[in-house]
Amino acid sequence: MISPTKKRIALIAHDNRKKDLLDWVRENAESLIDHELCGTGTTSSIIAKNTGLKVKAYKSGPLGGDQEIGALISDNGIDLLIFFWDPLTSQPHDPDVKALLRIAVLYDIPTAMNKTGADYLLQSGLIDKEYERHDMQK
Question: Which candidate in 23, 66, 86, 135 is catalytic?
């Protein structure tokens, strides 16, 4: 599987981390504008409204959005996952979150779960290059 030069980036954040993700997106808007962005319900609308970036919205995480993003990953529709999850708050859709993270690992999707990880991914020399991923199914 080849990740193209224009990456398809999924942006997700739990409620207590939405502001952190929004701040990160604002800081990196110039780089992110060159890529295709999507995200789960509220997160995608907050980012689009506050940054002017185009972000394709899927359902809210608890309503199936995490599963929709997971399906995109399995169909080679996501190249990068930025998921600012809240490790201190139990989520009603924890099984969906775990399934999404499992799919991301299974399909070798670069994943960041905090600002530092997201900075490393976005500033990687690979962000604007084709990159061959190796899924674990083989």
Answer: 66
Q: Where are the beta strands (DSSP E) in the chain?
A: 2-3, 8-13, 36-39, 55-57, 80-84, 111-112, 131-132
Candidates 71, 93, 69; CA nearest to 83 is: 69
Say which CATH superfamily domain 2-124 falls into. Methylglyoxal synthase-like domain (3.40.50.1380)
pTM to 2 decimal places: 0.93
Would you call 86 a catalytic residue per the annotation? Answer: no
pLDDT tens, position by position, for the chain (138 residues)? 788 889 999 999 999 999 999 999 999 999 999 999 999 999 999 999 999 999 999 999 889 999 999 999 999 999 999 999 988 887 877 889 999 999 999 999 999 999 999 999 999 998 989 888 886 665
Domain ranges of the chain: 2-124
Q: Which residues, 6 or more positions from 55, have their beta carbon under 8 angstroms from its beta carbon?
A: 11, 37, 38, 39, 44, 45, 47, 48
Q: Can you tell me whether residue 60 is helix, strand or coil?
A: coil
